[in-house]
Structures are given as structure tokens and as C-alpha cells.
Amino acid sequence: MQFGSDLGISNDDIEKISPQITFITSNAEIEAIALVSQDGYQIAFSALPNYTVDSDAFCGLASALTMTGRSTIQSLFQEDLSEIIIRSNDGYLVVTNAGRLVIASAGTKIDTLMKTVKVMRIAAKNLMKIFEGR
């Protein structure tokens, strides 16, 4: 079975997805990034060597936050979820809706948070275009 075929992701899709992940990692100062299906299936994960986090836990948290956030936003505003931003004194997590996929990134430099959000919004829009009409 081809990777991602159970999610309806073809080799052509993967070739289109990869530059968007590179765009994020090249333009945002993050320690970890994951691409996850809406159901929490880990598609891609990468972290800097000094940032110790379990990839399954990271993707599971992104999925759980997305499901909770989506339900909350739908109940309150009758809209689709755009993104979730969680911040502490020493770091942040941004989870961005990318249509059929979810992008999650974690960083420890608080002053780069808004740039990360902007970069992820651009990548999410581009990822949504890949699967438009499917």
C-alpha cells in the first residue's frame, strides 16, 4: 500500500505538500512541526534534536486540540476553525486548519509567535488548494 493512500493522498499530492512544510521551516523559528490528518493520523513530523517530544503525542495533541477547537468555534460562531494558539511563558503551540490536514508547530521564542502564525496561514491556504474539490 502506498503511503497516505488510505487518506486519499497521492504521490503527486506529497510532492505538492513538501514545499509548504519547507516554507514553514525556512520562515518560522520553530522547534517542532507536524502535518496531521483531521483524524490525528501522523503524516509528517520533524523536531530539532534538542527539542525532545514524542511525535505520536505531539500529533495526538494537535488532533485533540483541533477536534475540541472545531466543536467550540462551531458552537459559538457557527464557523470553521482557523487556528488555535496556545502560549506559555516559555513557548507556544500553533495548530492551523489546512482543510483535510492540520499543521502543528511548537516554538520557544515567544517574540517569533506572530511571524509563525502568519507563515502557517500562508502554508495552510496553499495546502487547502491542493485538495480543493476532493
Separate helix tally = 3
| Quantity of strands, as a count | 5
CATH fold field value: Beta-Lactamase
CATH superfamily: Dynein light chain 2a, cytoplasmic
Q: On the 0-100 scale, what is the average pLDDT?
A: 91
Which CATH C-level class is it? Answer: Alpha Beta
Largest sheet: 5 strands, antiparallel
| SS-derived structural category | alpha+beta
What is the H/E string? HEEHEEEH
Percentage of β-strand residues = 15-25%
**Spatial strand arrangement across the major sheet:** 2-1-5-4-3
Helix percentage: 40-55%
- What distance separates the N and C termini? 21 Å
Q: Explain this structure to me?
A:
With 134 residues, this protein is an alpha+beta fold. It has one domain: 2-Layer Sandwich (Beta-Lactamase). Helices cover 43% and strands 23% of the residues. The protein is built from 3 helices and 5 strands, in the order αββαβββα. The protein has helices at 11-27, 55-77, 113-130; strands at residues 32-37, 42-47, 83-87, 92-98, 101-107. The chain has a 5-stranded antiparallel sheet with strand order 2-1-5-4-3, with helices on both faces. Helix 1 packs antiparallel against helix 3. It is globular, with a radius of gyration of 14 Å. The relative contact order is 0.18.
